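Standup notes
- DV: blocked on the single-chain target, sequence here:
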Amino acid sequence: MSKEQRRTILFLLAFGAAFYAMALHFPLSGDDWQWGSHHAIEIPRLNGRYLGNLTAIMLAKMVWLRPIVMAMAVTASVYFVSAISARISGAKSRAPMLLTALLFMLLTPAIMRQVYPWSSGFANYVLPTMFVLGTIFFFVRKPDAKAWYIAAVCAWAILGQFFVEHITLYAVAASLFVTGWYIVKYKRLHPFLTALTATYVAGAALMFMHGAYGAEDLYGSHPMPTGLRELLGNVSENYFDVISPHGIANNMFLNVLIVVAVLLLIRSSDKLKTRYTWGVGIAACISLFPVYVFLRQLHPHLPYARLVRYFDGVMSALFFVGFVAAVCLFMPQSKHKRLVLFALGSVAILLAPLMGIRPLGPRLFFIVYAMLVLAAVSVIMHLKERRLLPQSKMLADLWRVAASVALAAMFVMFFGVYRRIHNAAEQRQVFIEQQLAQTDLTQEEVWIYMPHLPFEHYVWVGTPTSYWNGLMYRRFHNIPNNVRFKFISYDDWQRGNFS
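- DV (later): unblocked, structure below
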């Protein structure tokens, strides 16, 4: 084992241990109360998310296992993204791994709270992302592998088909596209790609054979638009209100990295002289976008809100198209270029089925974010491979130290936040039990106080304010159904202010 391999293993172990320490303090929230109750056994028969449902039940019921699975899955995803890019370039440096780990911890708050601390969101969105990234890595590692290796990877790949619908459809569409491209280019079948495509199609068929799809009254199923006008209305509302902000615009740190990478790519390209106008246009378009988003966050409530939202969506689309155009026009033909275009094409494929369905949540964009990270890191590795980045050893060491300190600081901050949330959730339950012990539960309706949690924007539905979540919370904690909650703020609870 080389020195660099030992360092990589130590880094992954350290990242996994830090994530495990943070995940130890993730509270159960939202659907977790349902998955953890005795009613959870009824849920897997409601749709085709077989592994997603079963994993959510397991994580909600086996609290000791939850941080282990979470730490392993996120660490594996970080490794797969960085290893795919490094494998393409033949790099041995752990620099892409450090950058990838940093980006995975810089998720937007809206996405992060729905995929890391929320067990149900983690089970249905992080795990299938890990399986997709793992499949890409295993293929890149040995594209001309023997039959036993192909069979093992196909067994891994099909597991990812039973979590969430849009990722299942993406796997089918992406594999069909890549296989078709290979056939057109090389006039023959690729055994590995053909096997993966068949595996993904079979997995999708097994998922969508479930009777829940097509029904409108079952969990996880929503009626599709019935006409062209309704479909276009859904597409417009979904894109401008959800897809644009959560899929592209709000990824501030990632977007800044993309801008830097694209500017360096254009500036160092041999084709800039003949495509100067394109280069200037693309550079201006993508450079203005993070500045615009930053200014919009400073002034979120502007007049003509709907028109502003449309303009936001147009700016997001131009930023993404500019990224694609920069890669197509200024990146030389190479494995890196194909990988970046594959990742950006994956973003488009993943977003397409989300245009016409409702409701949409930020958690659906975790895999989109992961693909954008893969694209950005791959461009950076391309620049490094061609020695287009600063070659100073002092700058490289300074980057490693700064990134390591930033990553450690984020873990310390999140550990403190979730530790406080976890402790408050336990204290809240003790407080509720004390109220129940002092209350006559034979009455037709009983009211008790339910405090909110601190830092509640870091968790998904930390307090059961809706009827459904209140019902699930009562079932999970064995609270009688005639009990009703009076919600008070965390600060009022701590001060004893119950007025």
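- Follow-up: The longest helix spans residues 393-437.
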